[in-house]
Amino acid sequence: MSATPPNPQRRSERSRQAILAAAIELCTEKGYVGVTVEAIAARAGVSKKTIYRWWPSKGFVLLEALAQRTDSHAPFPDTGHLAADLYAQMTGVVRLLTTPPFGPAYIGILSELHHDPELTAAVHEQFITPRFTAAVNRLKSAQRQGRLSADADLELAVELLYGPLYYRYALRKPAHTAERMAELVDHVLRTLDCRP
Fold first, then answer.
1. What is the CATH number assigned to the segment(s) 70-191?
2. What is the pLDDT of residue 6?
3. pTM metric for this prediction
4. Pick the CATH number of 8-62 from 1.10.10.60, 2.140.10.10, 2.40.50.140, 3.40.50.150
């Protein structure tokens, strides 16, 4: 009886997972700048050619590795208390941005966006747009309930809420304290004429 031939798809998936794990490990150890495709290949036990067959750059490798570890389509909290829901979601974002391995990898990926349009499109599709849409939809729900002014610009409100988080993250400033985050949420909601 002959042995079953190896399944190439299973072998490919094993290599892909090894590459993603190696990219995250290296980024955690050395930071984004210290990661190279050569180093990923060596750590994963594959050739550079294998990596470039699936991804155009290390940014894409790390983006997929991060996407695999986070749920971009997780439901936005809706407990009926808008301020508490925004606060909970925003503190979750800060925790994600400031905790390895996500934080170092994501800040590195963001630094590439100014000169890599394809990576920019992928980051928006996988991370930015789903979260932005979920936040706008949560505000729309409050608006339908009469909690927010009918003419409030909800997309601008989301930028007002999350802009300070990314500002502090991008400039390597300490994240807001819990009290300051609550003040940010309260301030933005007051500009939207939020009613309890």
1. 1.10.357.10
2. 47
3. 0.84
4. 1.10.10.60
